[in-house]
Automatic annotation (TrEMBL):
<dbReference type="InterPro" id="IPR017871">
    <property type="entry name" value="ABC_transporter-like_CS"/>
</dbReference>
<comment type="similarity">
    <text>Belongs to the ABC transporter superfamily. Macrolide exporter (TC 3.A.1.122) family.</text>
</comment>
<dbReference type="GO" id="GO:0022857">
    <property type="term" value="F:transmembrane transporter activity"/>
</dbReference>
<dbReference type="InterPro" id="IPR027417">
    <property type="entry name" value="P-loop_NTPase"/>
</dbReference>
<keyword id="KW-1003">Cell membrane</keyword>
<dbReference type="InterPro" id="IPR003439">
    <property type="entry name" value="ABC_transporter-like_ATP-bd"/>
</dbReference>
<dbReference type="InterPro" id="IPR015854">
    <property type="entry name" value="ABC_transpr_LolD-like"/>
</dbReference>
<protein>
    <submittedName>
        <fullName>ABC transporter ATP-binding protein</fullName>
    </submittedName>
</protein>
<dbReference type="GO" id="GO:0005886">
    <property type="term" value="C:plasma membrane"/>
</dbReference>
<dbReference type="GO" id="GO:0016887">
    <property type="term" value="F:ATP hydrolysis activity"/>
</dbReference>
<dbReference type="InterPro" id="IPR003593">
    <property type="entry name" value="AAA+_ATPase"/>
</dbReference>
<keyword id="KW-0547">Nucleotide-binding</keyword>
<dbReference type="GO" id="GO:0044874">
    <property type="term" value="P:lipoprotein localization to outer membrane"/>
</dbReference>
<dbReference type="GO" id="GO:0089705">
    <property type="term" value="P:protein localization to outer membrane"/>
</dbReference>
<dbReference type="InterPro" id="IPR017911">
    <property type="entry name" value="MacB-like_ATP-bd"/>
</dbReference>
<keyword id="KW-0472">Membrane</keyword>
<dbReference type="GO" id="GO:0005524">
    <property type="term" value="F:ATP binding"/>
</dbReference>
Amino acid sequence: MSETVLAVKALARSFEQGGVRIDVLRGIDFTIGHGEIVALLGPSGSGKSTMLQAVGLLEGGFSGSIAIDGEEVGSLESDARTRIRRDHLGFVYQFHHLLPDFSAKENVVIPQLIRGATYADAEKRAASLLNRLGLGHRLEHRPSQLSGGEQQRVAVGRALANKPSLVLADEPTGNLDEATADIVLAEFLKLVREEGSAALIATHNERLAKKTDRLVRLHEGRLE
């Protein structure tokens, strides 16, 4: 396995708006090593989400190279991109996007079933992850019965369910109050480190960003 979980080279993305070309990403070169947690810092509109969409293979229209676990993935067809997302990536968003009709445990079980795990194995791992996130007493509760911080913890467990090489988090605590955000971020970082995953966390919060292993800034489409 490559020592680098993510390597992007000359990554660029432009939009046309009102006949004007807008360069959101301008030839970014960037790597993340296995197990490394990196904060991607920048104000709203700086291109953080666009960069995560590129790395997460969620949107086309990018130029440049994207390699995950040593495999060039930026030019893959749709089915192969889906495989990479399923087998190598985990996602945490500002809003949890949990399935409302399923329990906390089931929300963490389902991604594992999609990947081919047995229900027994998926249920065991889901319970383990949620216990480690302090939700052992809430396994059978549906999202509507959970607080915002609890819902986001479930989303963290879901992101790590398939043991991804890389977790991509877009303002993962941006919808929480400061005290709850601190707790959820601490649990998120602890669990990611215990699982041995790498993480790229987009945020505009410098205080939170300083708790990661490395901080990079996105400014006018380039990394500093």
